[in-house]
Design goal:
alpha+beta; Serine Threonine Protein Phosphatase 5, Tetratricopeptide repeat; 2 domains; four-stranded mixed beta sheet; about 10% strand
Length: about 260
Amino acid sequence: MLKRSMRPPEPALAISLLGHARFAADGVPYKVSAPPRTLPLLGMLLLNRGTYMMRDAVAFALWPDDTENAARTNLRRHLNYLKNALPSCETPWFVADAEWVIWNEHSSASFDVDTFRSFVGGPETMADAVALYRGDLLAGFDDEWLSLTRDRLRSQYLGALQELLIAARTRRDFVLAAEYARRILCEDGWREDAVRHLMAVRYESGDRAGALHEYGQFVRRLREESGIEPMRETIVLRDAIARSASLRDVADVGRPRLAAVAAL
């Protein structure tokens, strides 16, 4: 009796482009070896999943400084590089003809940007969303076509951090609230509202000296690098902490309210 041949299962590919690119095939780290411009091409295909993109439009977006012929040639080469760099499988990762190219929705690939977007809007999954965000989309590339999506994702990440910070502070989880404040400041060191939250968190946790230290560090940097003074709200908060007063009536940090995260 003849045995029916069994086709091996398709590899499950996890693609992470938030921060520096990372790949995993069937849960095992996978190295993609291809010229650098292959990654923006992959990003464009994934960010436009379900869309038939004209090859000329893709080529001119990825190689805007090249001639038309050179841009088309580069696209053809890099589509081939990408095909060879991704794991071999029966179902193609993307489909292309002479006019258009599209990511294959039937391929078994996951994309961290899709997961981030689905997680960031829900209170129960927001912490998972910020854990996924390991840096700006396609970090290291400065393509013009990337800027709008990259800025929106960063803004949504910062909004989620702000909401998680306020929620943590409301339930008096000061360690976690301070971590969220510091993550905001790592992205934008001039976010004075985050500085105020960090000052308040340290003060409310019993570290008055630490709260005043945060203020002093920020003000010195502000004066040295920008030649300006802190906002009135920040000075008011510093004064309240200095005299060991309650922060109940201090603007911005006294009665935290959850802020909605802007949708993409």
